[in-house]
Amino acid sequence: MKKVLALLALSVTMAHAASAQQDPKAGKILDQMSAKYQAMKAFKANFTQTLENDAAKVKENLTGDITVSGQKFRIKLNGQEIINNGQTMWTYMKAENEVNISDFDPDEQEVSPTQIFTLYKKGYKYTYVQETKEAGEACDVIELSPENKDNPVFKVRLTVSKVDKSVKSWKMFKKNGNRYTYTIRKFQPNPPIDATTFNFDKTKYKGVKVIDLR
């Protein structure tokens, strides 16, 4: 459960602490990008996740979608559904027709889906890398490095559109040799959401086995 959350890097919080070590050009782009997403009440995105590990000769592609509103999120990926209402988290495994319930503690996550657009604001150094093109669109590439050397993620690269400051993709580099690339395929700002969006409705999962880990 925590591993899946750590891989999804998709939003919003924390206060900006600039220092002499930070790249001002990168900081300006990141601030513009972050402001764009924080202005939304919610967003939904379809994405492709690519896992690569050269030593293990692994390359895998998965598709999923995520809906985020503040500290709440709902993720569907590879037969799993993770629902978080800011306090409680449900992890549903389709193959087993089983749901695990736990308290949500964002401090236990390497990278929470609600942090990716403000990750740079606390505990990370950032530098401008280069200009590039993604799907024919001009973009800026920015690299984030965690100040905590015990972090299993040692680098994150964000690719941000020059046109509208949206995140087109990001790549997480882990010390175990795994690289995870998330490419946004479709993005919807302010999708319709209701009280059921970020809560698990047992009645919609016939015969589901409930395991309460709280």
From TrEMBL:
The keyword Lipoprotein applies. InterPro entries: LolA/LolB/LppX, OM_lipoprot_carrier_LolA-like. Pfam families: LolA. It comes from the Bacteria. Keywords: Lipoprotein, Signal. Gene3D superfamilies: Lipoprotein localisation LolA/LolB/LppX. Residues 1-17 form the signal peptide. The keyword Signal applies. PANTHER family: OUTER-MEMBRANE LIPOPROTEIN CARRIER PROTEIN. This is Outer membrane lipoprotein carrier protein LolA. It comes from Hymenobacter cellulosilyticus.
